[in-house]
Specification:
Chain lengths: 226, 346
């Protein structure tokens, strides 16, 4: 069953009078509860596709449907609510809030997602997720005192704490060494299975493809292989 | 609110610097305002102590009380119609105290004792600043041009005119000293006027208009008030610039928070909470120190800062700080999540 579908999505950037077409009519369907990887050379448009899919930038043309709702026709506030409640994000860098502890980063996400859980339930959920990413023992630490791998694990925890339907990950292992990259991918794989989260992930690390269910290869703004 | 507080706690130095600058500027504003009020009191407390009402001078006096002469007959005519009216005169002069020291004063006499001290013939009542300078009740004062002496009968607080202490004397002594039975100024309180026709040929002045006829009063107050206004504007700009700089540094965080779905309004609330917190703490310190300064200031220093003025200035500070911070916060509205994501690790 399809949860998320992109139909003929195009993206054009203007540089003065010159127009550059980054995405040239993309059709993608994400299978529910599976991990789909977007690969391709630098400049192939994979990160642009991911950010458009996640509602972080707009498409120049085409339609994106999520749970039968057209994201491209949606007002900004509605789109924000979907990002907060239904989507999770992992970026190349962890991008944690520097003045919040590990535990507070997750509490902020639950609050942003307007989680209906009680305070006690929230604390329990935070503990469960932090234990899942093996970061409960660092719950009171600030990002500045965490290693790169630890930060990324917290970023993963933040991305899934509110039980999103889709997790968007833009090169989540690019800033990590191979051992830590593997750990993070195993974690994403585990979470996707346990929580039935659909994942769309950009990567150019071929080793990471061992952890995904589907691969979409892009070249010059087009899908060349599924 | 909690996020705002957490950020302040994690960036103590940054916010302490902002708080210190707000504290110093607000303290300077309070001190200048205290001096402005103090000088205003020193220059015209005799007039400022009167209730709201209308002052009258003769039209040909050209708004200069020295040139105004309301003859006794006209005073009587007016008093017949308006028994609550008071007439008074002020003359700058001097006297020699018992230690043969010459003192400058503003001699004041009035037709009744409703608004001015009741003084008997041969007596004088002085502003308390004279007591602080060593003059005591029972002392006799004289003048080179007089044939008589006046006995100090008492002191009154905060009665000064044109930076000189007031010396209240009886009408008879005033006539003797200045050779006139006319009065310069008529005064009647706001609610007491029932027949404006009684004051024909006299020019009316409100309290503030009359204060502005005092030589130097207007220029002195305007200069000091301009300094206070500039300090308030500077503090507003300071808030805007400082929050602009802080916001520029935090654009990455704002972008990521927006990406994960945090409302822009919440980011503004966080900034406002920080601005309020810093302002209130700084202003509390400023208020305490300015009040302490008022208490410790040398008695000769014209410094007068009421809690009402301080609170009013504090509210203006907070409002200006709020506007400054909000203007700088426009960047928060403009920041795109994509910018932050592409910016790399913060």
């Amino acid at each position: 069953m399809s949860l998320f579908h992109m139909n003929n999505v195009k993206k054009t950037f203007s540089h003065g009078e010159i127009e550059e077409e980054i995405l040239k009519g993309i059709h993608v369907t994400l299978p529910e509860g599976k991990i789909t990887a977007l690969t391709g050379a630098s400049g192939s448009g994979k990160s642009t596709l991911l950010t458009i899919a996640a509602g972080l930038q707009t498409a120049s043309d085409g339609h994106i449907s999520f749970q039968k709702e057209d994201l491209t026709a949606m007002r900004n506030e509605k789109l924000r609510q979907i990002r907060a409640k239904q989507f999770g994000f992992i970026f190349q860098f962890a991008h944690l809030v520097p003045f919040l502890t590990v535990e507070e980063q997750l509490a902020l996400m639950l609050e942003t997602a307007e989680s209906p859980l009680s305070r006690q339930e929230k604390s329990k959920e935070i503990r469960e997720v932090l234990e899942l990413v093996d970061m409960w023992n660092r719950k009171d630490a600030y990002p500045a005192s965490l290693s790169g791998g630890e930060k990324q694990r917290v970023a993963v925890a933040r991305a899934i704490i509110h039980n999103p339907k889709i997790l968007f990950a833009d090169e989540p292992t690019a800033s990590l060494d191979s051992k830590r990259s593997e750990d993070v991918m195993k974690l994403i794989q585990k979470l996707s299975k346990e929580r039935n989260i659909t994942v769309l992930m950009v990567t150019h690390d071929m080793d990471m493809l061992n952890f995904v269910d589907h691969v979409i290869e892009m070249l010059d703004g087009k899908i060349v292989k599924k | 609110m909690k996020m705002a507080w957490k950020e302040i706690k994690r960036n103590k130095l940054r916010y302490t610097i902002l708080g210190s600058i707000v504290f110093l500027i607000s303290l300077l504003t309070f001190i200048i305002s205290g001096l402005a009020n103090g000088l205003s009191q020193d220059n015209a407390s005799l007039i400022k102590n009167l209730p709201n009402g209308t002052f009258y001078m003769t039209e040909d006096a050209d708004e200069t009380y020295n040139f105004s002469t309301i003859p006794e007959t006209q005073q009587k005519e007016i008093l017949d119609e308006q028994p609550d009216a008071t007439f008074f005169s002020i003359q700058m002069g001097n006297f020699i105290d018992e230690a043969d020291k010459q003192r400058s004063v503003a001699y004041v006499t009035a037709t009744d004792d409703t608004y001015f001290p009741d003084v008997k013939e041969g007596e004088v009542i002085l502003d308390t600043s004279m007591e602080e300078e060593g003059i005591a009740i029972g002392d006799e004062i004289t003048n080179e041009q007089w044939n008589q002496t006046l006995t100090v009968a008492g002191f009154v607080e905060h009665e000064k005119y044109s930076h000189s202490p007031a010396a209240f004397i009886s009408q008879a002594d005033f006539q003797e000293l200045f050779h006139t039975d006319s009065m310069q100024i008529g005064f009647i309180t706001e609610g007491a006027i029932n027949d404006t026709a009684a004051f024909t040929d006299l020019q009316p002045f409100s309290n503030s208009d009359f204060l502005n006829t005092i030589p130097s009063y207007n220029a002195e107050q305007m200069s000091l008030n301009m300094i206070v206004i500039f300090l308030l504007v500077i503090s507003g700009m300071l808030f805007a610039i400082f929050f602009y700089m802080i916001n520029v540094q935090k654009l990455g965080i704002y972008g990521i928070l927006k990406a994960i779905g945090v409302k822009t309004g919440r980011l503004f609330q966080m900034m406002w909470a920080q601005m309020l917190f810093i302002s209130i703490i700084s202003l509390v310190f400023s208020i305490l120190i300015s009040q302490l300064f008022q208490w410790l200031a040398p008695s000769g220093m014209p410094f007068h800062l009421t809690l009402q003025t301080t609170l009013l200035l504090s509210i203006i500070f907070v409002v200006i700080g709020f506007i400054g911070a909000t203007l700088s916060g426009i960047q928060i509205k403009r920041v795109e999540p994509m910018q932050a994501i592409q910016q790399g690790e913060m």
